[in-house]
Write a structure and sequence with these properties.
Helix content is 28%, strand content 23%. The protein has helices spanning 26-42, 59-64, 83-97, 108-121, 205-208, 228-241, 249-253, 284-287, 319-333, and strands at 11-14, 46-52, 69-74, 101-105, 125-129, 131-135, 138-145, 150-154, 162-166, 183-186, 217-221, 244-247, 274-278, 295-300, 313-316. It has a seven-stranded parallel beta sheet, with helices on both faces. It has a five-stranded parallel beta sheet with strand order 12-11-13-14-15. Strands 6-7-8 form a three-stranded antiparallel beta sheet. It binds flavin-adenine dinucleotide (FAD). Flavin-adenine dinucleotide binds at residues 147, 222-224, 248-250, 262-267, 279-281, 283, 285-286, 299-302, 305, 318-320.
């Protein structure tokens, strides 16, 4: 969509609800907060699009985080995410209301949905952004490039809407003190028979364990953890603290933990209250996914390891010795 750029207005956020917990994903509120800030520069309104069932229970939160308009598409046939139907709805809404920019969550849903919409509307899309801003009236979509060595600022000068998917746990959530009452626009769509049919949904094993991107405490394991015994102790410590397990890429590649535990550039971003690393050097590709944590504690046998540059507490120690000692102390306190 390219002609008459001036006819496009407002910035939209695509909402996402966790299908299992039925709670709004935190990224929805992070995107709304970012959109609210951008809307001041773009002098426009913030719209949020929610497709699903029983959506009204989320409206108050949408208002609190800055939505001016809620586009509500509610039907029992949209209970589960479905690429074909969701994309068709968004394409139709975009053609009708002409938003100037759309922010998607960079989650499985957003990563699947955004490119489908972009290709049908022939507009640009920057995937996996870590920052969004406005310069000279255009959306600047920033993301790491060339292996994380540089940050690329990308703009779409000739097409609308300008679209970006943004990583969870990077942008802050900012609740408004005096939220206004959003306008609600109900739109109705009939689901088309999808090429993909959901026959049965079941939780995979990974969904039963605490996700690092959603946990308050993350214990992350690096290549300095060399033996199974120490790894078992770390798992025990995580269970004691109610922490999620995170990992660097080599640990995932070695099969010690699944891909959904990988933190960093090609994994997930985390923002827990406490992040504890054992045997992690602090390569940029890892720290880009955890440096926003509230409190960072690092254990590494090398006092010069870069992870110490971003840690509030650093312990130059051997993980093999430290972890059993921490467990002993916890047991004593019980
Ligand atoms: C395109 C690209 C994408 C990438 N994406 C990611 C990503 O998403 N996430 C990610 O993590 N990495 C990623 N990487 C890899 C990244 O560059 C690093 O190689 C990786 O993060 C290093 O992992 P590590 O810290 O576990 O290992 P190392 O760098 O080998 O560090 C191990 C550390 O353990 C310490 N140590 C050793 N023995 C002990 C001991 N007994 N006690 C305490 N400390 C000890 C050492 O001093 C060292 O600092 C990516 C790389 C590329 C090129």
């Amino acid at each position: 969509m390219s002609n008459n750029l001036e006819s496009y207005k407002d910035i939209w956020v695509i909402a996402e609800v966790d299908e299992i917990t039925k709670k709004l994903r935190s990224i929805t509120l992070e995107l709304l907060s970012a959109a609210k800030k951008l809307s001041q520069d773009l002098r426009c309104k913030v719209g949020i699009v929610i497709i699903g069932q029983d959506n009204k229970k989320y409206f108050e939160e949408f208002a609190k985080y800055g939505a001016d308009i809620i586009y509500n598409i509610e039907d029992s046939s949209f209970t589960h995410y479905d690429s074909q139907n969701y994309a068709q709805i968004l394409i139709a809404l975009t053609k009708k209301y002409k938003p100037e920019a759309i922010l998607y969550p960079s989650t499985y849903m957003g990563r699947d949905l955004a490119p489908r919409v972009a290709s049908k509307l022939s507009c640009g899309l920057t995937a996996d952004c870590t920052a969004v801003s406005v310069k000279e009236g255009k959306l600047v979509q920033s993301r790491p490039a060339f292996g994380g060595n540089i940050m690329a600022d990308i703009i779409c000068p000739d097409t609308r809407p300008q679209m970006a998917s943004v990583r969870p746990n990077i942008l802050p959530k900012i609740a408004l003190e005096n939220p206004s009452k959003p306008q609600i626009i109900e739109e109705h769509f009939k689901a088309v028979p999808s090429k993909v049919r959901v026959i049965k949904t079941q939780k995979d094993k990974a969904s039963e364990v605490l996700k690092p991107e959603e946990a308050d405490i993350v214990i992350a394991v690096g290549r300095g953890v060399k033996d199974q015994k120490t790894f078992a102790f770390i798992k025990e410590l995580a269970a004691e603290l109610g922490a999620a397990l995170g990992a660097t890429r080599p640990i995932v590649e070695n099969g010690l933990l699944g891909k959904n535990h990988q933190i960093g550039q090609s994994g997930v971003s985390v923002k827990p209250k406490v992040y504890i690393s054992f045997g992690i050097s602090g390569a940029l590709q890892h720290t880009i996914g955890m440096h926003n944590s509230d409190l960072i504690i690092a254990v590494n046998s090398d006092g010069k390891a870069p992870i110490f540059n971003i840690s509030q507490y650093g312990f130059v120690a051997d993980v093999k010795k430290v972890v059993p000692q921490i467990l002993q102390q916890i047991n004593k306190l019980k």
